[in-house]
Amino acid sequence: MKRALGLGEIMVQMNPTEKGALRFQTLFERHVAGSEANTIIQMQRMGVECSFLTAVGADEFGKVILSSLRSEGVNTYGVVEDRINPTGVYFVQRSYPVPDKTMVFYYRKDSAAAHFGPENLKDEYFVDLDLFLVSGITPALSDSCNQAALKSIELAKKSGAQIAFDTNIRINLLKTKENAIRVLEPFVRKADILFTGAGDMAMLFGNDSEVAKEKIIEMAESAHIIVFKKGADGVEALVSGKRYSMPSYKVPVIDELGGGDACDGAFLASYLQGKSIEDSLRYANVAGAITVSLKGDIEPLPDWQAIETFLNVHGAGEKRLLR
């Protein structure tokens, strides 16, 4: 079985039962979510043995997160329980002020995860590892997280693992284009598999999409796979100089949070398990489509059976998935 390790912040998500401005919401559902954790759980559901590195508060929300990871089969030996700093929380606002779009409001300052540092890493976490995953959120959280992410990449490469990195820019953390490039460039350059999208490339290199694409390709000097996520327009990939494209599936969008993470996880799980690039992109599209059609980041993430059912209903006839 292939093995993957992720690093990142995982938080409690408060998602209102109704659409509209948060000030009018009185009922909320409690979910667990975080970009890298979403991706890791997607991979776990698709047959990759996964572990996760993070810190949570020694509080009730921290217990919820640990329980959620363990219930998915994700190994939590690298999760720190912080007795000083709290678990991060964020609130979701759906379809306001832009219909069918989701806004997020974070309460994560001085969270436990933001205090995770290189001193929390152990060499044994990286033994017999096939893939290490991190995104642009983690190095933007704090200097200690940045250093932990860089050291993790060093340890993963030493063990022979591939590095997967999603630019995943959060403007509220990085603030400016100059800071975004300063923080993210070392990770883009070290990635073997890079995920990005139009919004992130525009933030880094401006609104000319073709120029931005060429600049990210040039920066990703170690990447043999670059996946360009285009939302409703599907996904593209550049693999050792060869271009691939896969259209998306049209589904009703309930909550687009987590769709890109599901896409990353399904692609990585498929690729690690020997699927072709075309199939890996197809399954990535399916995972993203299923996830955005329901509330919550983790709950909708599909396993192989759900992906096969989706494709059969959509006429693709993918009976070979479960062989």
SSE blueprint and pairings:
Blueprint: E1 3-7, E2 11-16, E3 28-33, H1 35-45, E4 49-57, H2 60-71, E5 75-82, E6 89-94, E7 102-107, E8 131-135, H3 137-141, H4 143-158, E9 162-166, H5 171-174, H6 177-190, E10 193-197, H7 198-205, H8 209-219, E11 225-229, E12 235-239, E13 242-246, H9 259-272, H10 277-292, H11 304-313
Parallel strand pairs: 1-4, 1-8, 2-6, 4-5, 8-9, 9-10, 10-11
Antiparallel strand pairs: 2-3, 6-7, 11-12, 12-13
Helix pairs in contact: 1-9, 7-8, 9-10
Can you characterise this structure?
- This protein is α/β, with parallel strands linked by helices and 323 residues long.
- The protein has a single domain (3-313), classed as UDP-N-acetylmuramoyl-L-alanine:D-glutamate ligase.
- Helix content is 37%, strand content 24%.
- It has eleven helices and 13 strands.
- The protein has helices spanning 35-45, 60-71, 137-141, 143-158, 171-174, 177-190, 198-205, 209-219, 259-272, 277-292, 304-313; strands at 3-7, 11-16, 28-33, 49-57, 75-82, 89-94, 102-107, 131-135, 162-166, 193-197, 225-229, 235-239, 242-246.
- The strands form two sheets. It has a nine-stranded mixed beta sheet with strand order 5-4-1-8-9-10-11-12-13, sandwiched between helices. It has a four-stranded mixed beta sheet with strand order 3-2-6-7.
- Strand 12 (235-239) and strand 13 (242-246) form a beta hairpin.
- The longest helix is centred in the middle third of the chain and has 16 residues, at 143-158.
- It is globular.
- The two termini are 15 Å apart.
